Amino acid sequence: MTTAVNTVVVGGGQAGLAVSYYLNRRSQDHVVLEQADRPGNAWRSHRWDSFALNTPRWQSRLPGVQYAEDDPDGFMSRNEVVAYFEEFARRLPVRYGMRVKRIERDRESGEYLVGIQDREPIRARNVIVATGLHQTPKIPAPSRNFPSHIRQLHSDAYRNPDQLISGAVLVVGSAQSGAQIAEELYESGRKVYLAVGRAGRTPRRYRGKDANWWFARLGHYDRKVSELPSPQAKFGGKPHISGTKGGHTLNLHQFARDGVGLLGRLHSIDDGVIKLAPDLHDNLAAADRAEADFVTAVDDYVARTGMVVPEEELPVLRDGFEQPLLSELDLRVAGITNVIWATGYGFDFSMIKLPVTDGDGYPRQTRGVTAYPGLFFVGLPWLHTSKSGLIYGVSEDAAYITEQIATGENSTSDAMASPQSAPPRANSLPALKRTRRRLVNAFWSSVFAFVIEGFAVHAAELYSIAAPSTASYAVEAEAEPDETTSSSRQ
Fold this sequence. Notes:
Helices cover 26% and strands 16% of the residues. It is an alpha/beta fold. The strands form five sheets. Strands 1, 2, 3, 4, 5, 6 and 19 form a seven-stranded mixed beta sheet that branches. A five-stranded parallel beta sheet has the order 8-17-9-10-13.
């Protein structure tokens, strides 16, 4: 028997919970379907033991509930995050153990049929997809060619150094997860080799303030997706930084000084010998430039505004450049018995039986609103702004989508879909108004980018977020689910 509800939210992570909060405030009939058996699953089951958010507490809050303000600049541990989500979800209509397998649209009624594994389907006028992009651990093809005695696991399954077998560890990918895990491993006494990708570096603190405080002042979090240099830029890895130990900078030159073997990106493996790209020094130099660009942007802002903050000169390390550019490394000779793939996650929206994704598989939408009335997305990186995928920013998009549902303004312009894939609009005036509004917003976005002296324009270079070249198979870290996770892995 099919049940009916006004709105189904697919996914009970931060995005699904945020939109449920606003639907409750609007007295909107809805249900949240979460495949896990309890709240906070992404943090509880897919993070290592010592994990901490990379955003300070003042940024780590869902709508209507704030974390204790006794330490606003501190960083929440994994267990604190789980407890926070448990408390927040307690007042919301979340149904656990509900794995959504199919979402299709009834052409006659325009309603959606949500198919659930081993459950009766649910019929709804609106469906909000809040599964995020970090759905399935991505392990590159070369992993299949590693010797059978090598213990391999994705960063998603890593918990602590004790779960590894004795011997050295190769960590592939050097964005936030890879760099943080590599640091924990070498500090535990392990010999570590790190295949370095193109992720940049940001100092944890500069001139008396946390880096994220500066990013907020510089307008980084309010940058629109339209300001990115390419659609692929939203998938890039995040810069080296950590929320552990009270928050600290991760510097790969320091890693080298401490004995970590830095390598170029991994190309392939043959007979127990890994083949490496000769790009280690280039990638280290790019990380150094990212930090220098951040410092310049902050210094310029301070000079322009007359803000009174202490002077600071960051230490300049060069140790990584002293390491050789290896073209290959014999695992046996290096004593490597473990490999951790910190290579990001894949995503798949094929459960939605409508043509709603682009060539990259990313949903076609404008601030979460698709060409199909009643079908929405929330919680995706760069859904609307830089902070859309963060706990810090998901509330704004959740409130916006709830407003669309409550007022009935829940469709985008016809230009977002072909005539074959979306019904025509009965009245084109709202679409014209929305188009004019987008043009005005685009104008002010360009003015904003100019005002902050190109900081936004060069963000792709600053954070190494440009998509990797398809001409090379070299493996590197992709976007990773630290505080950005809204996925419930539907």
